[in-house]
Amino acid sequence: MAETQVRFGILGCADIARKVSRAIALASNATVTAIGSRSLDKAKAFASANNLPTDAKIYGSYEAVLDEPDVDAVYVPLPTSLHARWAVLAAQKKKHLLLEKPVALNAAEFDTIIEACESNGVQFMDGTMWMHHPRTAKMREFLSDKERFGQLKSIHSCFTFAVNSEFLKNDIRVKPDLDALGALGDVGWYAIRSILWVADYELPKTVTALHGPVFNEAGVILSCGGCLYWEDGQVATFYCSYLSNLTTDITAIGTKGTLHLHDFVIPFQEHEASFSAGTELGFNELVTAWVPQPSKHTITTHLPQEVLMVKEFASLVEGIKVKGSRPDKKWPTISRKTQLVLDAVKASIERGFEPIELGS
Amino acid sequence: MAETQVRFGILGCADIARKVSRAIALASNATVTAIGSRSLDKAKAFASANNLPTDAKIYGSYEAVLDEPDVDAVYVPLPTSLHARWAVLAAQKKKHLLLEKPVALNAAEFDTIIEACESNGVQFMDGTMWMHHPRTAKMREFLSDKERFGQLKSIHSCFTFAVNSEFLKNDIRVKPDLDALGALGDVGWYAIRSILWVADYELPKTVTALHGPVFNEAGVILSCGGCLYWEDGQVATFYCSYLSNLTTDITAIGTKGTLHLHDFVIPFQEHEASFSAGTELGFNELVTAWVPQPSKHTITTHLPQEVLMVKEFASLVEGIKVKGSRPDKKWPTISRKTQLVLDAVKASIERGFEPIELGS
């Protein structure tokens, strides 16, 4: 039986849409059937530069994509301040929603998106690609293994990259009217998500921002960090920045095991990714070396993580379309938790680094 | 010309003294000439089990070692609460001082040790072995290089290891009358030192403890962490624990470079050690892989780090003895800074996680 292809519309011509349109093309259960931009010329240029199918519809507006009957799902890489408007409208038009992160300007706004998705029976997923790499599942096995990892005790995560002066002046991610959350909403999203992922999505009880966040002249965050505390004693720290060399780390330490990786957001290589894991590590008798040492685990993948993301999303959409399944709630739930922690970091910064209690 | 040998006395038979007595034997400019314990039998057993030179004096007290004319320097691995008494007495007896960490119960107490060393013209050094590994010098070159590392922005360090129930009951490091600083004074010492080392020993302006430290019934810290903030915006976080799998990490991120290592305290192997360094790392055009990637640097060493520590210390002692040099102030200065930060973490915990301002 031939696989059903979920038909994607793309809203806007953001840089990241190049990668995701390639991913849709590479995913066997997905295809691009429409693209819309406020500028028809830009949409045409994007379609041609990115080898969209020749029969894909090209529109000079986002609305037209949402009104297109040959579109099942939309990929929305618009600036964060436009998410609520276009995501809600997409859901109302019964389009399944693959939305870039941060999903909204705050959790209350995200709730309007989720409500629209739920009442219209459409699937929601955010664009956090690394979640879909097979390495992530392999690391989850290690973290869930009481014999190899034990009980979680602490987590550290960071995502930093050094932007250039052009970015600092003109990128939408430093504009208060477009991406008001700045580095916290962009790179911080990944760091916070990775911490929640390690903690198996249990929300921390308290979140405190690190002192010394950096803002641009318009008040947008360029670097910041935070500490997360759970009821039963786990602690996590993170740091995110546009002003430091590219670094993407997760360290998770349990009573029995330790996990390290340094390329969690984008693997060093497209088709192969590693992590380091060690169980009951120790020193030799004279404390001059380690016995045992941590070991490196390498996972190969034919399809890169963004293709696996599209496949997973399209498969959920197909389930709804073809088999009448209910939308999967895992994905909007973890998006919301990520946004809640992000909001708490922002609130802590605004309140002079006070601890912010998170409701459940 | 034959190398002068600095003659060491060892105070006590602590486990760590086995490693250091081997290091003294392996250091070409050092030899053990005396050992003292409160129990003569224990001192004899230690001397025999650790192949001390057959003509080494064996005493049933610490005083006797300090009174021994054939001793130039003492290695003091006694419990922290005994440091001030025996270190000051050693200095007064003109014995140079290699003192285990934490150097004292607090900086004020350490100052009495330093004053005794200064007024008696003896060298002071603490027993932080990794400082002396050639890898450490190689990493310093990277961190100091404005082209490869740029300006320091953030640091994360941790040292955790999982102790057994016997340790939790009986080890001196969990006894309030012996090592009142617990895990903070032991493993936390290394984490804090590593942060200061990355920051080129510039003291932070403010130190805040992480929430959720764990104490034993006697009130001794078993796990804790902290955040350090510098005047010009650098931030550091650390975590230390007796309740988590062995993990020893340094991550240092600059505007242009990133340094990672996972075995900073004791290298995975005795004669070879690595670190990862990357400069101006970035993603490829489609953001699906890294170009360039960080690279691994491996340093071999014929002599393990504890031998290099003894050699360095003995060489300073020899300079004083033979050439009339002044004691080197670098080592007591960085010990004191480490202790100051450690004190601030403890004070922050005691004051409900308030930020503690550090004087200069």
Describe the structure.
The first copy, chain A, has 360 residues and is α/β, with parallel strands linked by helices. The first copy, chain A, is built from eleven helices and 16 strands. Chain A has helices at residues 15-26, 40-49, 62-67, 83-92, 107-120, 134-144, 165-170, 182-185, 187-198, 305-323, 330-350; strands at 6-11, 30-36, 57-59, 73-76, 96-99, 124-126, 152-162, 206-209, 214-215, 221-229, 235-241, 243-254, 257-261, 272-279, 295-300, 356-357. The first copy, chain A, starts with 5 loop residues before the first strand and ends with a strand. At the A-B interface, helix 1, strand 7, strand 10, strand 11 and strand 12 of A face helix 1, strand 7, strand 10, strand 11 and strand 12 of B.
List keywords for this structure.
homodimer, 360 residues, alpha/beta, Rossmann fold, Dihydrodipicolinate Reductase, domain 2, 2 domains, ten-stranded mixed β-sheet, 16 strands, globular
